[in-house]
UniProtKB/TrEMBL annotation:
Matches recorded under SMART domains: HTH_ARAC
Protein name: HTH araC/xylS-type domain-containing protein
This protein's record includes keyword Hydrolase: no
Pfam families: AraC_binding, HTH_18
Length: 276
């Protein structure tokens, strides 16, 4: 099963992640992956090919797809497009899960679908403009969207095979969620495996099978992702950023950063600053 786990980090000022799809210029692919978040792709212009649960959907202007937590999916967009992506952490729906501790959503009738599209579109443009008081409006619309999902898009009876697959991926979701919350701590494989009742060998195996990387690589990837966000958004010293995000020193951070970005953190910061 050639799939990977995707880490979803909410926007700094929001309880969810909202952005324009990275493949807007076309000639772009996202390989098979899964995450613990509920995801909405809404095409504003152009088209994208979406593959989910062995089905192919060609999304064109004003069409959307709902991706449930732990559903394997991939995307291809050979042509330019403008697509809004909204990712909602799975735990947001904790109070509305069924007896199997899962909640699924699916497209409904034309009226409900139109409500969802209008809310997602408005949510995005309000957030983009960031006019005075936008934070209240964005969060208000977000909660309207959550209410709409729960009342009009929730699947009442989930397929047993769907539940089985979710349970397989849930084991790793729980571990990666814990790692996300504690990535800056000393997270040794043995200790994390013990916490979740696994053997170190078993935890290593499910990382390689589902995340397509070993445990240590995943942890370092996680630390770099959070460090990059601070690197871009602040003028803090690189050594300070390294220590804050779980690296023993700036040298270890620089080595991990260069392996993933092809340059040193200082060079990357200068490059980003020059484009603003």
């Amino acid at each position: 099963m050639e799939i990977r786990h995707e880490l979803v980090i909410p926007n700094n000022d929001l309880p969810f992640r909202l952005f324009i799809f990275e493949g807007r210029e076309g000639n772009y692919k996202v390989t098979k992956h899964w995450h613990h978040s509920v995801e909405i792709f809404l095409v504003l212009e152009g088209e994208i090919d979406f593959f989910i649960n062995n089905s192919h959907l060609k999304l064109t202007r004003d069409e959307f797809v709902l991706v449930n937590s732990n559903e394997v999916h991939s995307i291809e967009c050979p042509n330019p497009n403008i697509t809004i992506v909204l990712q909602i952490p799975g735990e947001t729906f904790e109070d509305y899960m069924g007896e199997d501790s899962y909640v699924n959503f699916e497209r409904k009738g034309e009226e409900a679908n139109r409500k969802l599209k209008d809310l997602v579109t408005s949510l995005f443009f309000v957030y983009e403009k960031q006019e005075y008081g936008y934070g209240f409006q964005v969060k208000s619309q977000f909660y309207q969207l959550l209410y709409l999902l729960i009342t009009e898009f929730k699947t009442e009876n989930m397929d047993k095979e769907v539940i089985r697959q979710k349970k397989q991926l849930d084991k790793l979701s729980d571990v990666t969620q814990y790692m996300r919350e504690n990535y800056d701590q000393d997270l040794k494989l043995d200790a994390v495996a013990l916490r979740f009742g696994f053997s170190p060998t078993y935890l290593s195996r499910i990382f390689l099978k589902y995340a397509q990387v070993n445990y240590r690589t995943f942890l370092i990837d996680l630390r770099v992702k959070y460090a990059v966000r601070e690197l871009m958004g602040t003028d803090h010293e690189i050594g300070e950023i390294a220590m804050k995000h779980g690296f023993p020193d700036s040298r270890a951070f620089a080595k991990a950063f260069k392996k993933r970005y092809g340059c040193l953190p200082s060079e990357y910061r200068k490059r980003i600053s020059s484009t603003r």
